[in-house]
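Propose amino acids for all 338 sites.
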């Protein structure tokens, strides 16, 4: 009898617990909302501050998982397969490749306007000084990346084509290994590999900052799966909130924030300080004309897409309206209004 009464009491308590929480379906929804996967590259930027300081977990809940990947194309593969809900920082090229091949996501934040963290490095002993000197050379590049786009732009501006050089498709770690073996003397890549090569008999002869001045803007984005965003807008807003905190930390105490990056990426602090040379627009700057405002990012995406189509990397560059529709600023606006 006592067991029967106890069972009835527990049953009633359980029933009221579910009623108080809004029912079992709401509980499942909450669980789903906090179980998010972020595909991310380990770049020396404000996203690394966000990750290292634990802001994603603080804002989104303990269910969030940061999946560390080598390159943007791996992140797009994870988004396409459904293995990731968010991705960033993600280069402009893989962002475009994913969009133009049917992966359904929205750009929700600009991680960085790339300047000094990507570039063309040559072995010092070769004596190469300009891009024009590279005719006939093997060049290590990660295909479908912003580095790939930068290399193509550099060649065109120098009056060369891909027929004049040999492009070797390599992930950044493979580029470094090939450099150490002496298999390549030239690479277009990003940090930390770029700086690591420069410190091993390398010389940087061109950066993304030079390309930006020549009209070739490269950008790193944050994206979210469209269906996930529609189902869990509160989680997307929390993601943006976490990015905001990373930017604010860096802006308010750059030295301390760089220590966080150093510990998270297990890199020497002086290397981190050397590598953090891009423009990292905070939440208050996201809608500025040189970031997402005035269709700046959409126009840059179209320009890159047309270049990639011309180079045979994508089949259809789409149009400006396509890229404008791929950018969703509602979460930025929501967090700005808080």
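Proposal:
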């Amino acid at each position: 009898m006592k067991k029967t009464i106890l069972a009835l009491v527990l049953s009633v308590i359980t029933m009221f617990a579910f009623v108080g929480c809004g029912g079992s379906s709401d509980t499942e929804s909450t669980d789903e909302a906090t179980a998010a996967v972020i595909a991310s590259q380990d770049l020396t930027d404000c996203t690394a501050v966000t990750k290292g300081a634990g802001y994603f977990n603080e804002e989104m809940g303990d269910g969030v998982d940061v999946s560390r990947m080598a390159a943007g194309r791996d992140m797009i593969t994870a988004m396409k397969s459904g293995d990731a809900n968010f991705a960033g920082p993600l280069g402009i090229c893989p962002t475009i490749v994913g969009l133009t091949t049917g992966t359904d996501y929205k750009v929700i934040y600009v991680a960085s306007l790339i300047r000094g963290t990507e570039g063309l490095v040559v072995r010092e002993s070769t004596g190469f000084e300009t891009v024009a000197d590279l005719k006939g050379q093997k060049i290590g590049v990660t295909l479908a990346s912003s580095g790939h786009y930068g290399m193509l732009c550099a060649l065109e501006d120098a009056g060369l084509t891909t027929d004049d050089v040999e492009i070797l498709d390599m992930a950044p770690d493979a580029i470094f290994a090939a450099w150490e073996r002496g298999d390549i003397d030239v690479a277009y890549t990003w940090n930390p590999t770029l700086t690591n090569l420069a410190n091993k008999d390398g010389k940087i002869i061109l950066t993304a900052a030079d390309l930006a001045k020549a009209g070739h803007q490269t950008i790193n984005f944050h994206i979210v799966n469209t269906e996930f965003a529609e189902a869990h807008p509160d989680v997307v807003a929390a993601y943006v909130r976490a990015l905001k905190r990373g930017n604010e930390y860096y802006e308010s105490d750059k030295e301390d924030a760089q220590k966080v990056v150093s510990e998270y990426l297990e890199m020497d602090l002086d290397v981190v300080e050397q590598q953090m040379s891009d423009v990292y627009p905070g939440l208050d700057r996201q809608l500025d004309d040189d970031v997402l405002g005035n269709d700046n990012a959409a126009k840059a995406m179209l320009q890159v897409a047309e270049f990639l189509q011309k180079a045979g990397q994508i089949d259809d560059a789409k149009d400006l309206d396509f890229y404008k529709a791929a950018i969703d600023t509602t979460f930025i606006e929501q967090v700005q209004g808080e």
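DSSP finds 17 helices and ten strands in the chain. The mean pLDDT is 90.
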